[in-house]
Amino acid sequence: MSARAKARRRALDILFEAEQRDVSPLAAMRLRREATDITINEYTVTLIEGVMGELDRIDEILSSYSKGWTLERMPAVDRTALRIGTWELLYNDDVPDGVAVAEAVVLVRELSTDESPEFVNGLLGRIQQMKPTLLA
């Protein structure tokens, strides 16, 4: 697993934990640093700060393009992976679009339901197609 893949996984873990505990992701990250000897990669911090900085816009986009699924109805792991994937697609030019989509799919394949990879791939694929319009 690449360093960036590990960073994505850790970012997903922290964002998921923060949502479940109803604390800020930065507080969850701080608690994790204090409670464990886990090193938090710089890219993990970039992802968390990026997702949180654009969360309203990301959630608006996800709500607009997910057919038949509200954010609240999505499995929490899927929702978190979609937020990370959307941020990488739209706001991180260092990550190729295909990699952002594929990495989000890998996360949900490992951590979520059997239907999640297809759902995440389809939704991020639509967002990828709409990227020029979304960034205009």
Task: Describe the overall structure.
The protein is mainly alpha-helical and 136 residues long. Helix content is 76%, strand content 0%. The radius of gyration is 14 Å and the shape is globular.
Architecture blueprint of SSEs:
Layout lengths: L2 H19 L3 H11 L6 H12 L1 H11 L10 H16 L5 H15 L4 H19 L2
Give me some keywords for this one.
136 residues, mainly alpha, 7 helices
Ranges where pLDDT stays below 50 over 5 or more residues in a row are: none
Helix content: over 70%
Q: Give the helix/strand class.
A: mainly alpha
**Mean pLDDT level:** 94
H-E string = HHHHHHH
**Strand content bin:** under 5%
* Shape descriptor: globular
Number of helices: 7
Terminal Cα separation, in Å? 34 Å
Q: Could you give a short account of the major beta sheet?
A: none
- The Cα radius of gyration reads 14 Å
Number of strands: 0
Produce a short descriptive summary.
This protein has helices at 3-21, 25-35, 42-53, 55-65, 76-91, 97-111, 116-134. The protein has 136 residues and is mainly α.
